[in-house]
């Protein structure tokens, strides 16, 4: 026999009130979520306006600097590129792997920078902010940063003449290095041909090696040209070839098994007198 449990009027009222309270709680949470979303949308739209305004200011500053640079060299050019930016408002918790996208914003900004035609140099115009603490900073306005072609993490500049001079000096340095390398290659070929003609029976080879700078500790060294001459008697001499074509002896080795054989041979060598 099944016994039916009957609830009292008071108990039924409590259950009904609990159900109503749950509905009210859900409605209240929905209102709070809608209010949060509305506030987030307002904040995001304000952030987008700031981003667009900053972008417009950066474009104007870049074009102003371009005008001054072109007075110094007409080959300075403006490079423009449109970029789509996507910003999203997401729901859920930051710990959630998949957070639902509640609102998405898409807008376009112009990315601009300055180049000097025919060179790898690039000029970025950016805000110069000087920070004196965690929350204290001073806006020094838009300045130029030179990068590319050996320039990296350079000090921001506001004077176009200073920036242009840095580029001119770098280009001159590159050209001087190029001429020096050409001269080194030419002197190597000339020295090699002279030795081949003078010692046709010798084995003569060209190579390069790294030479550490022994005079300046801060300078690591350089790649030098090497000519190695192996005579018919197996004596081997390694020369450093200088840019003017002269040779500097670096090593000499003799094919003797003992030092006495070497000494006997050297003792019989007649050294010609040097006349001025």
How would the blueprint of this fold be written?
Elements lengths: L8 H64 L3 E15 L10 E16 L5 E10 L5 E11 L12 H39 L4 E9 L10 E9 L5 E6 L5 E7 L5 H9 L9
Antiparallel strand pairs: 1-2, 2-3, 3-4, 5-6, 6-7, 7-8
Account of the 3D structure:
- There is one protein chain.
- With about 280 residues, the chain is an alpha+beta fold.
- About 40% of the residues lie in helices and about 30% in strands.
- The protein has 2 domains: about 20-90 and about 100-160, no CATH class; about 185-265, no CATH class.
- It has helices at about 10-70, 160-200, 260-265; strands at about 75-90, 100-115, 120-130, 135-145, 205-210, 220-230, 235-240, 245-255.
- The strands form 2 sheets. The protein has a 4-stranded antiparallel beta sheet with strand order 1-2-3-4. The chain has a 4-stranded antiparallel beta sheet with strand order 5-6-7-8, covered by helices on one side.
- It is elongated and about 135 Å long.
- It starts with 8 loop residues before the first helix and ends in a 9-residue tail after the last helix.
């Amino acid at each position: 026999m099944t016994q039916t449990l009957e609830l009292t009027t008071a108990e039924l009222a409590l259950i009904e009130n609990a159900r109503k309270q749950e509905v009210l709680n859900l409605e209240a949470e929905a209102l709070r979520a809608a209010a949060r979303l509305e506030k987030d949308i307002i904040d995001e739209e304000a952030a987008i306006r700031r981003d667009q305004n900053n972008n417009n200011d950066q474009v104007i500053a870049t074009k102003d600097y371009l005008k001054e640079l072109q007075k110094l060299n007409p080959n300075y050019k403006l490079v423009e590129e449109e970029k789509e930016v996507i910003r999203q408002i997401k729901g859920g918790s930051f710990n959630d792997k998949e957070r639902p996208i509640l609102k998405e914003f898409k807008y376009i900004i112009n990315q601009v920078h300055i180049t000097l035609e025919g060179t790898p140099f690039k000029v970025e115009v950016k805000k110069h902010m000087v920070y004196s603490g965690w929350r204290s900073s001073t806006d020094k306005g838009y300045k130029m940063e030179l990068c590319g072609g050996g320039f990296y993490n350079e000090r921001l500049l506001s004077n176009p003449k200073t920036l242009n001079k840095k580029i001119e000096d770098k280009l001159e340095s590159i050209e001087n290095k190029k001429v020096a390398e050409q001269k080194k290659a030419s002197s190597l070929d000339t020295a090699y041909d002279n030795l081949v003609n003078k010692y046709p029976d010798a084995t003569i080879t060209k190579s390069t090696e790294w030479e550490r700078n022994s005079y300046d500790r801060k300078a690591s060294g350089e790649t030098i040209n090497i000519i190695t001459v192996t005579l018919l008697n197996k004596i081997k001499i390694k020369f450093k070839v200088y840019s003017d074509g002269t040779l500097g002896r670096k090593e000499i080795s003799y094919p003797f098994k003992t030092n006495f054989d070497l000494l006997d041979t050297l003792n019989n060598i007649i050294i010609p007198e040097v006349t001025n």
